[in-house]
Amino acid sequence: MRWNLAVIGDPIGHTLSPLIQGKMMERLGVEGDYAAHHVAAAELPEFVRYAREELDGFNITIPHKQAVIPFLDEIDPYAERCGAVNTVCVREGKLSGHNTDGDGIRAALRGMGADFSGSRVALLGAGGAAKSICRKALDCGAEAVRVFCRTPEKGLQLAGGDSRGEALPFSALSAENCGGWADIIVNATPLGMSGFGQDFADFSFLGGGRPFLCDIVYKPAETSLLKAAAARGLPCKNGLDMLIYQAIYAFRLFTGMEFAADPMADFLRDEVKKALGQG
After folding, report:
1. Which of 209, 134, 157, 214 is nearest to 178 (CA)?
2. Fewer CB within 10 Å, N side or C side of the chain?
């Protein structure tokens, strides 16, 4: 079978998904195409009609992870709880929605020796990625998830009423309530990302403990946050592994193929670093 796959977003020029999915196809000996489509909000209904007829599946990035949901025929329970979809499988013209972001971040943390189970998690940001990460942390048995964001009411919604979730204003970040409290810190904001133009004002909130830190930003490879964490001796990594693992889990959903995720991630990590001039 030849797989016809895609990714949509607005903007979309920055995406590494075609590279990752293409390399995965090559390694697995799978025939197919994986194309990036720039889809503005007003064009989403038209793209969905095209996908029903022409595609076997597609990934979704900003800003369509929530907007696509009304067009789906079914949605898996985790994606429904997240209120966000990043992977759509097309079977005989019917669309089923999934979310692999949570499994992606969990796999990235596992590679560091960390796990959400029994952990106190400090989550920076309350956007689409943060919602998936918060839900996965709670589903996996986190002791507590503390969301730091500009609008605490929005942050509290991420927990979906779970009493283990709480939210504080971003301005309240401190060593006492973040670095000294958390077992795991995840930055799910674009602060420090190439081209974003904004960064953290300071990094004192990392002090007071020995948390694992994952910054979901992967360009640049070492953000200011990661540099500050490394200088304090904290175990830390960027968002490349999350990106790679969520793509692996998406490809499994698209094709139904079963293969070992970790060796594939090792291969894809090297390929992406080459493409980004990072290795």
Report:
1. 209
2. N
Has residue 129 got a pLDDT over 90?
Answer: no
Structure tokens at 109: 């943390």
- Catalytic residue selected from 65, 131, 136, 237: 65
Across the strands, what pairs with 87?
Answer: 59, 98
User: Helices marked H in the chain — which ranges?
Assistant: 17-28, 44-54, 77-82, 101-110, 128-139, 152-157, 224-231, 240-255, 261-276
Question: Is the confidence at residue 241, as pLDDT, over 90?
Answer: yes
Residue 237 among the catalytic residues: no
Look at residue 90 and tell me whether its pLDDT is greater than 80: yes
The mean pLDDT of the chain is: 95
- What local confidence, expressed as pLDDT, does residue 279 receive? 63
* Cα dihedral: 241, 40, 75, 246 (round 10): -10
